[in-house]
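Re: the 205-residue chain
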Amino acid sequence: MKKRLITLGALIALSLVTALVAPASAAKASTAKVFRGRATVILESYDYCGNGGGRRLTGRTSYRTSAQFSTGPRKTYGGYVERNPFTWLFYVGSIGATGSFQVGSAAVAKPPGVLLNYWTSSYSGSGRFSGRLVASHTDKATTYNTFFGQQDLIPCRSGLGTIPMVYALQTGTRISGTIGSSGARLTLTGATNEGFYAFRVDFSA
């Protein structure tokens, strides 16, 4: 099965506007705010080495790591405005290290100079937040919502070692929870493209 994987060069080519402002009724605050806390990750790994090339579970693990959730004014570019109540970024672990995630609602890619919407999310006056990943933009080589994992050096020959690999998150991945003036509690659930990993991330700050 063809693997839709992301190169590190494609990630570096993606330029993000990251002036962060937190919503104190969502996007109305005028001062920067970043929620720093801890995340518990439950991770399942799969391959396609079962009978007839079928998908099979190869491992299940859990770990705790540092994490950060930030919000800010919606991104704009070329007359277009991000389709979210505010822009947001969610980092889990040390980005680039195996087991880390980077997730973002939208980005401006330069070049070619285009606003990319990844998520559709909502925020209520009571602090309830939810969202769904609706586009990965893998076709534009500008994927930002990613998981840093490992893959077999030679498919189905795990005993020969693994190499680091960057996986795009699958559309349909969801985030939900609450965001307040002094803290946030969020859960991210989903899988990577082609289903090599499935995950649940519980964050609190």
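DSSP finds one helix and 16 strands in the chain.
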